[in-house]
Amino acid sequence: MSTLTIVLILVVLVAVVVGAALLLRARKGAGSGARSLRRRFGPEYDRTLAQHDGDSEAAHRDLLDRVERHGGIRPLPLEPSVREQYAARWTMLQERFVDTPRQAVADADELLAHTAASRGFPDPQRREEQLDALSVHHPHHVEGLRTVRRAAHSTSASTEELREALVHARALFEDLTGAGSPAVTKAARTRTSSGRGRGHLLKPKGSGA
User: Fold this and answer.
1) Residues 143, 194: one domain?
2) What is this structure's pTM?
3) How far apart are CA 81 and CA 137, in angstroms?
């Protein structure tokens, strides 16, 4: 075997090894990126993956695009008086659910959209863009807004489905308004001083519970 042949074989072997190493690194990088996105988006990652029929590359492009467009948003603080006002409005719409469940859910949709806009997210007229931005900053609870929005525009949703939608949306509302803050706690205590708790307010008449 000539020296030239040996050199060519060595060159080919080196190229194969380098190529394999680069491919392995790329796969590891992709896997790390996927894990990072899954950690960041939680349930929103799974929803997006399902939305793209299991196409992980398409789902990753979608999520990364949202981060690029909305990741730089720095949520604005709410003035204590505004926070208390929003908390009081949420409690009132829960109370109204007993008599007018569909209107209460529509009011919740509107209140969430305006609360998000007050925090610096896209305004309510740009609903899809607002949802995308919220999915970046509130990925664990943004589905609550989608749920209440679907229920608000449904003509066939049952009272129980409306109730579940409102309960689901409450977590996002609490995220946006800073649940547990003194202002929110005081407002909730004032509105419920008659002894009617949050669970009771969401039970329609005739529920028997």
Assistant:
1) yes
2) 0.71
3) 24
